[in-house]
């Protein structure tokens, strides 16, 4: 908080997106405040995976996932830098996951995927949303970032030079406010953002249950004449029926309601006797008309909503946070002009629209009418080919995410390039503090103009060009062999004061 009592930024919503944004702002030199309405972490079933690009966002901040590194012994844990010359365990060989994903409830065949072509781009992470929240909370505690739980925000009032946040606990002021408060966002509604899109046509449930006859429900994804379902070995069951959106998504989900849905979609005479966790969803697809109105911005589900098929929602929101964090943090710190915030919407809203189209297409081929089923059979033929299966994994991994940054190599995500001899750690290690990274090949010295605050110089033989400037969110901002071009890029992103 500033000396005048004005907060740098208030983030409304303490889920993974809000917490990730708070971390990015803190690394950029800002002092954010997070307000979360729940007093404890919501245990309800939520996302269970991150695509490769979103998982890399955490890897860049020093978080390891099980399978990343032989030293990682927990689903999430600290990532140790790879120090040259120090004895290190041999990395575990990369083995393709047995589950490649699904398209519209049709499982992809791992044996058809050309994993060598994808490489590490398919390196997604199976991790519960609550675990992501926990590790991010730990990071924020380490950095002294305040997260206030049990605070219900009731609205915001924007002004020319600040925003007032109204809550049941009283009013707060901030230079900037970000709504990361979910699909029913109070911030979005209060600040007057439009939220156009399509209404839902289905009712879905995802529930962890106990009961009788559940073992007779087949494991995996299945399309039936009455809908779609999936069962996991722990009796985590998802059902979807295309009979209209639920009348009340917030109503308590009962065992009787789940029993009816499971029987209707699976044809199995199973009975749910206990509901351990459950959520109700539909397939409405919407994106905010803008991601910024004055000093109020949106991220995550507050900016876009879609059904959970393909597990894209959490990943989309995490990349919102990384794309916004370095920009807003730079503006607050006085390093960047306010106009850079417009690029946040220009980059991220098209990605949301892409995921919305992806979701709509999946629902279209999952519906129970004959036209939809015919389309589904065609999709099945396509994904049962090496080209089709590989392309679908490429989409699911997030490899197709890229921005229209000028330059042949710019606009894509940087891989975790290994350091050249004598270099400490890898690119992810160099990027851990949220700085820009200037990667250069060993035979191309970094020009003196690059040595400035906010830039880490890193030598690697893996760089895609002699010089490559990488933004804090992992996007290659510029790449080439011309030091003059680098100077222009640096001036554009980090103007010298």
Helicity range of the residues?
Answer: 25-40%
CATH topology of the largest domain: FAD/NAD(P)-binding domain
Strand content: 15-25%
In CATH's first tier, which class of the largest domain applies?
Alpha Beta
The count of DSSP E runs of length 2 or more, i.e. the number of strands, is 26
Please state the CA-atom Rg, rounded to the nearest Å. Answer: 23 Å
Spell out the CATH superfamily of the largest domain. FAD/NAD(P)-binding domain
| Shape-level CATH architecture of the largest domain | 3-Layer(bba) Sandwich
Mean pLDDT: 87
Principal-axis shape equals globular
Q: Could you give the distance between the termini? A: 24 Å
Q: Ranges with pLDDT <50 over ≥5 residues? A: 70-75, 79-96
- How many DSSP H or I helices? 12
Main beta sheet strand tally, sense and closure: 8 strands, mixed
Structural category: alpha+beta
Write down the domain tally: 3
Please tell me about this protein's structure.
Helices cover 29% and strands 24% of the residues. With 497 residues, the protein is α+β, with helices and mostly antiparallel strands. Strands 1, 2, 9, 10, 11, 12, 20 and 21 form an 8-stranded mixed sheet that branches.
């Amino acid at each position: 908080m500033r000396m005048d009592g004005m907060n740098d930024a208030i983030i409304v919503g303490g889920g993974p997106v809000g917490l990730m944004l708070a971390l990015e702002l803190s690394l950029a030199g800002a002092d954010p405040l997070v307000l979360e309405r729940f007093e404890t972490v919501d245990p309800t079933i939520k996302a269970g995976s991150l695509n490769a690009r979103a998982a890399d966002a955490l890897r860049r901040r020093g978080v390891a996932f099980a399978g990343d590194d032989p030293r990682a012994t927990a689903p999430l844990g600290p990532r140790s830098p790879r120090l040259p010359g120090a004895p290190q365990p041999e990395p575990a060989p990369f083995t393709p996951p047995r589950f490649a994903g699904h398209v519209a409830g049709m499982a992809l065949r791992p044996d058809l995927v050309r994993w060598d072509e994808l490489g590490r781009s398919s390196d997604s992470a199976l991790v519960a949303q609550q675990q992501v929240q926990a590790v991010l909370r730990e990071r924020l505690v380490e950095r002294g970032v305040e997260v206030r739980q049990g605070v219900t925000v009731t609205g915001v009032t924007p002004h020319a030079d600040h925003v007032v946040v109204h809550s049941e606990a009283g009013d707060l002021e901030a230079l900037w406010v970000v709504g990361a408060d979910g699909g029913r966002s109070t911030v979005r509604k209060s600040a007057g953002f439009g939220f156009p899109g399509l209404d839902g046509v289905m009712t879905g449930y995802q529930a962890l249950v106990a009961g009788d006859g559940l073992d007779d429900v087949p494991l995996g994804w299945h399309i039936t004449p009455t809908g779609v379902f999936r069962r996991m070995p722990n009796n985590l069951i998802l059902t979807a029926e295309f009979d209209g959106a639920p009348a009340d998504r917030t109503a308590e989900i009962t065992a009787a309601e789940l029993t009816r849905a499971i029987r209707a979609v699976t044809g199995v005479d199973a009975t749910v006797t206990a509901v351990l966790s459950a959520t109700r969803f539909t397939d409405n697809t919407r994106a905010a008309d803008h991601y910024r109105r004055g000093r109020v911005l949106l991220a995550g589900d507050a900016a876009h909503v879609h059904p959970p098929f393909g597990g894209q929602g959490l990943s989309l929101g995490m990349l919102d946070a990384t794309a916004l964090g370095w920009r807003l943090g730079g503006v607050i710190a006085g390093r960047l002009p306010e106009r850079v915030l417009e690029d946040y919407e220009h980059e991220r809203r098209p990605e949301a629209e892409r995921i919305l189209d992806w979701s709509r297409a999946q629902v279209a081929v999952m519906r129970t009418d004959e036209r939809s089923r015919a389309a589904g059979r065609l999709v099945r033929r396509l994904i049962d080919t090496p080209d089709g299966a590989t392309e679908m994994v490429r989409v699911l991994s997030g490899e197709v995410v890229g921005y229209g940054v000028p330059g042949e190599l710019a606009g894509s995500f940087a891989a975790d390039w290994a350091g050249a001899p004598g270099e400490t750690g890898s690119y992810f290690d160099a990027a851990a503090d949220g700085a820009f990274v200037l990667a250069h090949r060993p035979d191309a010295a970094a020009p003196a103009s690059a040595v400035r605050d906010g830039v880490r110089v890193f030598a690697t033989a893996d760089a895609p060009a002699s010089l490559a400037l990488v933004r804090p969110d992992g996007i290659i901002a510029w790449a080439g062999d011309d030091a003059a071009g680098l100077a222009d890029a640096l001036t554009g992103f980090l103007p010298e004061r």
